[in-house]
Amino acid sequence: MNWQIAIDGPASAGKSTIAKILASNLGYIYVDTGAMYRTVTLAVKRAHIDYNDESKVIELLDKINIDFEPDVSGQRVFLNHDDVTEEIRSNEITNNVSQVAAYADVRTDLVERQRQLAQEANIIMDGRDIGTTVLPLAQVKIFLVASVDERAQRRYKENMAKGMTANLETLKADIALRDYKDSHRAISPLIQADDAILVDTTGHSIEEVVTEITAIINDRQKK
Ligand code: CDP
Ligand code: CDP
Questions:
Q1: What radius of gyration do the chain's Cα atoms show?
Q2: Where is the Cytidylate kinase domain (predicted)?
């Protein structure tokens, strides 16, 4: 079996930042499953479908192709060959993605696509349900967390650097609401897998977290 590394955790815990660095260090393929849910949400918006209209959202799935291409900053995301890397990070998509991600048929469809990607190479995948549902046999499972205050601070700095408008209190409330929705949905909620290792990144730099997880991976690979 290929190597599979699953990184799950709440919003802005640092999953994608850490996963990209690990993938580059290890020469593994990185799959950002959050970007896939965001891309479906963008397709719903572009088709002028109400996010609450489950059957219309489901009908759209067959018309959605999602592709990733590596680039210097990590990777670019394409919706039907259109580069949507920046657009899927807009506030509107961020605030509606958890609604779309809660639909059973959306999850079944994307989980299938994610498992296909994992067939192809050694993989590092981040999301909410990778260790519990998508790749239950992953050799390494990390549950990455940080306090909600620190996660809001991180997102605030990131938005300011991108020139996006940001309000710290609003960001904190949005993150807490998304965590709540992701942890309380009926299907594949955000939950630590029994065999996942908890890594609390509060007060830790990116380098420190990379070092800690690299040691966990090295340890597993020796066995
Ligand atoms: O980067 P950020 O933490 O803001 O979120 P993301 O990883 O881009 O994921 C966006 C949303 O997609 C999450 O809030 C979940 O609602 C959903 N998601 C999911 O349900 N399952 C996954 N495996 C990944 C993301
Ligand atoms: O993917 P996820 O939503 O879990 O988080 P992310 O997008 O990787 O990280 C959110 C922000 O936190 C980014 O701007 C990272 O540079 C930053 N970060 C940090 O400051 N310290 C860490 N230990 C990890 C991430």
A1: 17
A2: 5-218
